[in-house]
Amino acid sequence: MADYQSVLTRAVAKLPGTSSAATRRAIYGRAREAMLTRLRALHPLLPESDIMREEEALDQAIGLVETKFDNRSLKTLNDELIANESKLNRKLDELKSGRDDANRGLREFEVAMSQEKMTLSKLKSALLDAEEAHRISVAKLTQELDAMSARSEAAERLLAEARAALHDREAASREFEQRALESSGLEKELSTLRAVHAEVEAARLVAAERSEGLMKTLEDRDVALQRAEGTVEALGAKLVEQQKGALGEREAFEEKIAKLTQQFEAESAARAVAEGALQSAREDRGARRQEAEAGSNAKDAPPGQDELQADGIPDKTKMSSGNENAGTTPLKLALAWGFVGIPLLWGIYGTLVNAAKLFE
């Protein structure tokens, strides 16, 4: 049996990539015709069963080649799909980045828009404030203008009255001068009256200037007095607050001092107890030391002095007990010092901690 699959595979592989199924079927038909021609041309002739078996083998080879070709086509399509998917993914990433950039730009635009809105609202409020201030200033200027107009009208009336009075006075002075000329004895009195009139006028001007200066000084003093009253009120409020704070701090200090006094008294009592215990321990130690010294002296005495020892010095049993008690004295001393020193150190530490809290 011939290897139909390899032959058909080589024949199909030579086809271009764009070849169709009809081209492959034509190749398969030519291969079938060539196989049948070759098998029927053999001598002796082959039986039909062998020819049919060869055709079945050819059909199987064609099926395998088609399967390989389909697999290769599917693989090519799969590769193309993967390439297209990668391209689409890149485009999608580009679109996402563009969307992110657009969103970022939109957010920046919204932030800028909000800032512009805030600036616009500030400008509107400033414009309203400026308009209100302009309206108030216009109202004040109008009031001042009305007041000045009223003053000017009053001044004009006063000026007219003064002119009329001056005219009347001039007329009266002329009549008086004429009368004075008629009576020569009154000239000196007229000159004197004029001098007095001039002095009175000068005094009036000086008094008017002084009154204006006094009015300005009085107004300045009123303003200064108002400021001083405001300062005094503020200082009074601060003084009240400081007094309250001082009272609170004083109460806190008094509480801390009371606590420290109680602790000091407790520590003093503990110290007195410890000193009493220490004093008793010292006395006990001194007595035991004296007993030990007496026992050592009795031990070192000559044999002939046994009677003296019997009379005035303790015997060996007492000396041994004294030595045993003397041997335990350092332990008692250490316990006594610990009983005294530990509470004393603890009390000093507590006092220092409370004093540091007090002065913080």
What does this structure look like?
There is one protein chain. With about 350 residues, this protein is mainly alpha-helical. Among the domains are: about 5-110, no CATH class; about 250-360. The protein contains six helices and no strands. The protein has helices at about 5-15, 20-40, 50-180, 185-300, 305-310, 315-360. Helix 4 runs antiparallel to helix 6. The two termini are about 110 Å apart.
List keywords for this structure.
360 residues; mainly alpha; 6 helices
Summarize the helices and strands and which ones pair or pack:
Elements: H1 4-13, H2 21-40, H3 48-182, H4 187-300, H5 306-312, H6 316-358
Helix pairs in contact: 1-3, 2-3, 4-6
